[in-house]
Write a structure and sequence with these properties.
Helix content is 67%, strand content 4%. By secondary structure, the protein is mainly alpha-helical. The chain has two domains: 378 residues, Up-down Bundle (Sodium/glucose cotransporter); 215 residues, P-loop containing nucleotide triphosphate hydrolases (Rossmann fold, 3-Layer(aba) Sandwich). Strands 1-6-5-2-4-3 form a six-stranded mixed sheet.
Length: 678
């Protein structure tokens, strides 16, 4: 059918008004990182969460099942309530800019990368479904327009919606969109009540619906507890594990602002579904032969005043656009911060990062258009219901462990949970079926929960002091040797431990002693300290000794001799430089120090004024060289079981750790895990 001029006017007012606001927001805010107030937080959450499912989808499901359609918006409100009461504080205190960053910080970069890829796939599926939903609205306005042009128009509006405004622009336009949705959907509900003669008339109309399948139109669980309960759980977990909603919380200027914004969303989202339910049941009673997904648009064009009808169509289009744009923005943030920044420091710069983020949004939407325009589009649309489940299965259980069980879950088991969860969801969503129509999300969460539970039982012992050889007698007169990973705080801990025991600490002093014993220039020893290969000629050197540089073996032998000489003088702490190999085991306590790679890279970045990516690359090179060099004198270097104590220094103060180690060395006994020292 052709739209009337009044309908077109209403449609243009809503679409162009919101698009113009997005552009103006972008002109006022050049940076997407600005902090937001509670109103903008609420706008960003609702601008993404309240989309096609909350409007067209609610009316469609109500047409078939009545009140159970409310789970689209009721579940969204419950999700925001859980978010406000349980996750705002932990998310913001985590110090991570993304949910994936929380996992990477706790379980390592590999876990973060796996979660990034898998959760982005789930989000991308939902982006595609929003693109296709947008074409359904365009088909009402321009029925002769082809699929590809309709997809490109939808993608263009999604780009305008977010690319010029960033987080703040999406939040501000989300507020206006929500206001228009309230006006339109409540207007539809009021019109239904007017047409049916009030509440009693509406209930009578529902009771008269031809119902051969005995559908319980008044029940929230008309499709069964397993199905509708799964829908509610999917929405809750989907919100708690989607970067877009985390971004709204993390962009807030304070915890209070973030909490207020999510609470406002929790109370404003559910009422939107009421209008859709009224419309769906009204159309089922009066137009039983229509396609269910057209219930809302057909009602608008048939029963609403022309201007309000056009306003509703435009707002529905923008609702779909806002949801797709918000999801694309979430994918962009994950890819930029959790993947690209690992390889280039420039991505972390505000200007470059903003350009890269916008480019990722455009590429994401273009890829979605390409897949939606082919035969694959229909197939992907069939999988859209699993999008929330996939994201929840990937992130939820590991995220709970990272926030509230820090250091207690085995990293490999957490990694298994991140991978197993979505695989099980896909398996039970395609090949296998759960009894009673139970949502496959339950199986995915169960698989992830089992993996993490096993990880909790096994524990993550590397975060505690571990006594490997407790049977060896120790006393305060023993020489202590420390081997350490680069940038793990070896010298700091050694100095603190020596202070606790009242004995000298030798670190670079070993090189001075080695120079005296061997005759090798101390400057040469310092220049090649910890390096695995000595060049035949050092062009960077400024001293004459570089003309006749000693071999690597000669330098190793000199340091071994120096460590033995210093140990013979009495109890002391020897830091690296082959001390653990030089002193007989029965006369020393051997300690090995290691730390989380991210913390070591951060320490190196601070010491040498490097960017995060450059620090990680340099640290990897340092580890390779350090391992090769020290294994010239000790083939067991870095192998934890070759030491008396293997200590993880991650997030532990050197003073407290040294005090615990000193007590254990004095007593000559220990425990398998001495967490008190940590």
């Amino acid at each position: 059918m052709e739209l009337s001029p009044a309908q077109l006017a209403g449609l243009l007012v809503s679409v162009l008004g919101i698009a113009l606001l997005a552009i103006l927001s972008g002109m006022k805010k050049k940076s997407a990182s600005a902090k937001s107030g509670s109103v903008v937080v609420a706008g960003l959450i609702m601008g993404t969460l309240v989309g096609g499912s909350a409007t067209v989808g609610t009316a469609q499901l109500a047409y078939n099942y009545g009140m159970s359609a409310w789970w689209f918006t009721l579940g969204g409100g419950l999700a925001c309530l859980v978010l406000a009461l349980g996750f705002v504080g932990p998310w913001r205190r985590s110090g991570s800019g993304t949910l994936i960053g929380i996992l990477a910080k706790e379980f390592g970069p590999a876990a973060g990368l796996a979660a990034s890829l898998l959760s982005s796939v789930g989000t991308f599926i939902n982006v595609i479904s929003q693109l296709i939903a947008g074409t359904a609205v365009i088909a009402v306005v321009a029925p002769r327009l082809g699929l590809v042009p309709a997809l490109l128009i939808t993608a263009a509006f999604m780009t305008l919606y977010v690319i010029f405004g960033g987080t703040r622009g999406a939040g501000v336009t989300g507020i206006l969109k929500l206001a228009l949705l309230y006006l339109s959907m409540i207007g539809c509900g009021v019109m239904v009540l007017i047409l049916t003669g009030g509440v009693n008339g509406f209930l009578s109309l529902v009771s008269s619906i031809d119902n051969p399948d005995a559908v319980r139109f008044g029940s929230l669980f008309a499709r069964g507890i397993g199905k509708d309960g799964g829908a509610a759980l999917s929405l809750i977990l989907g919100v708690l594990t989607t970067q877009t909603y985390a971004q709204a919380v993390l962009s807030a200027k304070s915890d209070a602002a973030a909490r207020r914004g999510t609470l406002v969303s929790a109370f404003l989202i559910p009422p939107i579904g009421a209008g859709g339910i009224l419309v769906g049941l009204f159309m089922r009673a009066n137009h039983p032969g229509i396609v269910a997904k057209t219930a809302l648009t057909a009602f608008a064009t048939t029963y609403l005043p022309p201007v309000l009808s056009g306003l509703l169509l435009g707002t529905l289009f923008i609702a779909v656009v806002g949801t797709g744009a918000g999801l694309a923005m979430g994918i962009s943030t994950i890819v930029r911060r959790d993947i690209l920044q690992r390889f280039s420091d420039k991505v972390a710069e505000p200007r470059t990062g903003s350009l890269v983020g916008k480019a990722i949004i455009v590429l994401t939407l273009l890829l979605g258009v390409a897949l939606s325009s082919g035969s694959l589009g229909d197939t992907i649309l069939n999988f859209a219901f699993m999008s929330m489940g996939l994201r929840g299965a990937v992130v939820f259980v590991p995220m709970i462990c990272a926030l509230w069980l820090k250091g207690k879950v085995n990293h490999r088991c957490a990694m298994a949970g991140i991978i197993a969860g979505p695989i099980v969801v896909l398996l039970f969503g395609t090949v296998l079926k759960l009894p009673g129509g139970i949502d496959p999300l339950f199986a995915g969460i169960a698989a992830s929960l089992v993996c993490c539970a096993v990880g909790l039982i096994l524990g993550n012992r590397v975060r505690h002091i571990r006594l490997v050889h407790p049977e060896v007698s120790r006393s305060s007169s023993t020489v202590i040797t420390i081997d350490s990973e680069a940038c793990s705080g070896g010298e700091e801990l050694a100095a603190a431990l020596a202070g606790e025991l009242g004995i000298p600490c030798y670190s670079t002093e070993i090189l001075s002693e080695a120079a005296k014993i061997s005759g090798i220039s101390e400057s040469v020893l310092q220049r090649y300290d910890g390096r695995g290969v000595v060049a035949a000629y050092d062009f960077a050197a400024s001293d004459d000794a570089s003309v006749r540089l000693p071999s690597t073996g000669a330098m190793v032998s000199a340091q071994l001799a120096a460590c033995r000489a210093l140990a013979e003088q009495g109890p002391c702490v020897l830091v690296d430089r082959f001390g653990s190999q030089a002193v007989p085991h029965e006369n020393c306590v051997r300690i090995y120090l290691h730390a989380d790679p991210e913390q070591r890279a951060a320490r190196l970045a601070q010491e040498k004024d490097l960017g995060p990516a450059a620090a990680r690359r340099q640290l990897k090179r340092m580890d390779r060289v350090r391992n090769r060099y020290y294994r010239n004198g000790n083939r067991d270097w870095g192998y934890a079981r070759a030491y008396d104590y293997a200590v993880n220094t991650t997030d532990v103060e050197a003073a407290s750790l040294a005090a615990g180690l000193a007590d254990m060395i004095r007593s000559g006994s220990g425990k398998e895990n001495v967490s008190a020292a940590v």
